[in-house]
Write a structure and sequence with these properties.
globular; mainly alpha; 67% helix
């Protein structure tokens, strides 16, 4: 019996399944099997099961939102291939972000010299109104606009509301860190002395925060292959820079304005 010594063509070997996800093409994605109500119920139920949350991975995402936000959204793409949804199914990131906002709000309250009762009211208002309430409104607005105007195929897959909320809280974390944490350390010593230098530093913090928010939002929606023309999220940048220069010329210190807003709101609530 003769045995052939010629190599077998590669096409004759069975193809092995790659552990990596397929290229970003929505035709390769598995359709979402669970309804939005079911996914929302599972997400909310896991909010009370801390032992099932991956806080280490959520902390990793927070770090990379500053240094390499593209890597964070690459993970969302992987989740679509493995779990048939872009949105997070683990609320660990939301929990950590809420804790971070809670602690930073306490620091703000100390800087404003609030009483214990005023501090408790201030923290509740910031967490549940400024963060959760406004976040729900912004996420819903961007979810609606992206589905209505940015989808390639109006009859094809749509943007998940949960993913729109994830994009918002991702984009919210760097501004929160810059404005509620890093900036408050410098407020009494640098940012509130009434000089042009304090105005420059303060408004630069705000400029960087808004740029972070717009850029991460752009990355989030550009990660979806079902959307096009997502550069619309970057269109405000030139106007933003012009507005930044205008605030410096008019000596509008945004950090002082934020502190005045918080203080006036607390006086209204107490009355």
């Amino acid at each position: 019996m003769k045995y052939s010594t010629s190599p077998t063509p590669m096409s004759n070997y069975p193809r092995s399944t790659s552990p990596l996800p397929a290229p970003a093409n929505y035709s390769n994605y598995q359709p979402t099997t669970a309804s939005a109500a079911v996914k929302r119920y599972k997400y909310i139920r896991r909010l009370f099961k801390f032992n099932q949350m991956d806080f280490e991975f959520a902390a990793w995402q927070m770090v990379y939102l500053f240094v390499a936000p593209q890597k964070v959204f690459r993970n969302f793409n992987y989740r679509k291939h493995t779990k048939s949804q872009f949105a997070r199914d683990d609320p660990a990131f939301l929990v950590l972000l809420s804790v971070w906002l809670f602690l930073s709000s306490i620091c703000f309250g100390f800087a404003m010299d609030l009483t214990k009762g005023e501090l408790a009211l201030f923290v509740l208002f910031v967490v549940f109104v400024d963060f959760i309430g406004v976040g729900l409104l912004v996420s819903t607005f961007l979810w609606y606009m992206s589905n209505k105007y940015l989808r390639r195929d109006p009859d094809g897959p749509d943007v998940e509301w949960g993913y729109a909320f994830d994009v918002h809280i991702n984009a919210f974390f760097p501004p929160l860190s810059l404005l509620h944490c890093f900036q408050i350390v410098l407020f009494n010593s640098v940012l509130s002395n009434g000089s042009f230098f304090s105005c420059l530093i303060s408004n630069t913090f705000w400029l960087a925060s808004i740029i972070y928010y717009l850029y991460i939002t752009f990355l989030g929606y550009s990660n979806l292959p079902i959307l096009h023309n997502v550069r619309v999220f970057l269109m405000p940048l030139p106007l933003l820079f012009l507005g930044y220069l205008a605030t410096l010329l008019m000596h509008w210190n945004f950090s002082e304005m934020l502190m005045m807003f918080y203080e006036s709101r607390m006086r209204i609530r107490i009355l």
